Amino acid sequence: MFICSCNGLTDKDIHAAVDAGATRPQEVYAAKKCRAKCGNCVPGVVCMLRQALRDQKALTAALRNVGEMSDRGTMQAVA
Ligand code: FES
């Protein structure tokens, strides 16, 4: 889905930028080698960026929990 029609920035581009370490809107645009022009997309980029960062944080926490369970042998007891 296109988020920024001026630059052809998509939701997948935003997720790819977050996966590459972007945490600010400017970093999302920079990852696509562009920058906001008219600015109409900025609220959408901010919203998607926040959601992607929340998802990434939740995934990291879940993976950390799995790792801790594995370290304690809990995963072997469950399996
Ligand atoms: S729609 Fe993104 S800069 Fe215009």
TrEMBL record:
<comment type="similarity">
    <text>Belongs to the Bfd family.</text>
</comment>
<keyword id="KW-0001">2Fe-2S</keyword>
<feature type="domain" description="BFD-like [2Fe-2S]-binding">
    <location>
        <begin position="3"/>
        <end position="49"/>
    </location>
</feature>
<keyword id="KW-0479">Metal-binding</keyword>
<dbReference type="InterPro" id="IPR041854">
    <property type="entry name" value="BFD-like_2Fe2S-bd_dom_sf"/>
</dbReference>
<keyword id="KW-0411">Iron-sulfur</keyword>
<protein>
    <recommendedName>
        <fullName>Bacterioferritin-associated ferredoxin</fullName>
    </recommendedName>
</protein>
<dbReference type="Pfam" id="PF04324">
    <property type="entry name" value="Fer2_BFD"/>
</dbReference>
<keyword id="KW-0408">Iron</keyword>
<dbReference type="InterPro" id="IPR052371">
    <property type="entry name" value="BFD-associated_ferredoxin"/>
</dbReference>
<keyword id="KW-0813">Transport</keyword>
<dbReference type="InterPro" id="IPR007419">
    <property type="entry name" value="BFD-like_2Fe2S-bd_dom"/>
</dbReference>
<keyword id="KW-0249">Electron transport</keyword>
